[in-house]
Amino acid sequence: MSTTSGNGSGQLMERRVGEVVESTSTSFVAQCYQLEGAPALGGLVRTDSPDIYGVVGTVTTEPLDSARPVLARGEDADSEEDVIRDNPQLARLLTSRFEVYIAGHIEDGITRQYLPPRPPRVHSFVYACNPEEIAGFTSQLDLLRLLLNSGASHADEIVGACIRQAASSHDQPNYFLAQACRTLSVELAADVARLNAILRRISP
User: Fold this and answer.
1) Which of 117, 136, 137, 152 is the most exposed place for a label (fewest CB within 10 A)?
2) Rounded distance, CA 73 to CA 80, Å?
């Protein structure tokens, strides 16, 4: 998946959204290069060398220095834009991070939708997947089991957001949604209430 030269390198740079700062066998945290540059909840991202895919589960904006908490600054401002304009230092005091739940990896050129032998390295670059990558990776749906069992307190929201986001990358989004619903029905056959709650989140 790596691209190192030509126009492909420039396109890959444009899709680089952050850098791994924490890493475990099941998830990793990336820091954004731009304060408003975090990918959306449920978005598919990947690291490079090795290629590890994951789904965005949480986005957080916080102070770079925990000893300097964020303070309200807009009491006399007419708009939120005025707050940002009048306090240009905010971009240097805040940072955005996003947590990613690992959904698979590439091994010997083959997509594996189970946890990789090792998590991504700290300082690995994180890229937003393009529609072609999303459609290709989500042509298999074993990743839904990983997400359902991720241990995240809002795992159902992550699953729903992932399916909604991925559907638009498929040539036949309704067919993809039907496949996802069938997969969820198998995975959650013993928990109908949970199944129905997720299905409501992804219904067209």
Assistant:
1) 117
2) 10
